[in-house]
Amino acid sequence: MVMLRAVSVGLLGYGEVGRILAEDLRAQSVSVRAYDLKLEDASTAQPLQAHAQAHGVQLCASAAAMAAECDVLISAVTASQTLAAAQSCIARLRAGCFYLDMNSASPGIKQQAAALVDAAGGRYVESAVMTSVPPYRIRVPMLLGGTHAAALLPVLQPLGFDAKVASEQLGVASATKMCRSVMIKGMEALVIESLTAARHYGVEDAVLASLQETFPGIDWQKQASYFFQRVIEHGRRRSEEMFESAHTVNDVGMPAFAAQAIAQRQAWVADLADRGVFGTRATPEFARSSDWRTEADRLLHSLKETSQ
């Protein structure tokens, strides 16, 4: 087995998840390279370059150039870019390189990505990340799937990953993730829709009290604030994930009414965030209120302005 510090890891996608993984891997002196499309645009490259310099991450000119140097590639892009990310690596993929796909894509998309990687001589492994990454960082629980999952596990665990093999059958792990997302992202969308409307009518305290009585195990005030924050900050990524969840449900033959609506609500909030309704992303207070009412009031103010 390759010694821990001799493993070269490539991060395809250097967003929030990619940077967290980079920090935790570099803290162990693991060699880390990274590539992100934002590096090709001067207006978006600087923060990524600054982070990479601070943590000793080598930025690469292309995904293919990175793939040629790595033993393990980790794809952490938005769901809609899952196939494009795999395609971008395969021209120079090392023979036997593990390709860990952490993207929130449907089983069908994961199977297509696997076909690309395996045909190029790589070893594709799907990963289903089962909760939000920031609180857990590299220790975020994940399910692995595919014929190469068991072989990758002893490489990941010494690096600090909390991974376990769900199935040798490709698609089982991602189906678990996608079906869970209908519930989790659905709760986010429902809370934002319900409590924003309740705030408008002045009945939010009564609604929260009723929820607390029905579901006493949840701190609804705290949970609502967290939901608002995560959707405002990451609604675009969440909406793409939910469109993939809708595909997953549709593939069963059941119309994905709820999943589709959840995706649209997440995208709607993302559009508002991009327009600056919740402040600018460069400011520390962006989507950071400890009280969801602050964000709901911003949203309601925006709706009022739009209707005038």
TrEMBL record:
6-phosphogluconate dehydrogenase NADP-binding domain mapped to chain residues: 9-137
One MF term in the entry's GO annotations: NADP binding
Coiled-coil annotated spans: none
Organism superkingdom: Bacteria
Domain Phosphogluconate dehydrogenase NAD-binding putative C-terminal: 198-269
Protein name: Dehydrogenase
Species annotation: Comamonas kerstersii
Top-level taxonomy: Bacteria, Pseudomonadati, Pseudomonadota, Betaproteobacteria, Burkholderiales
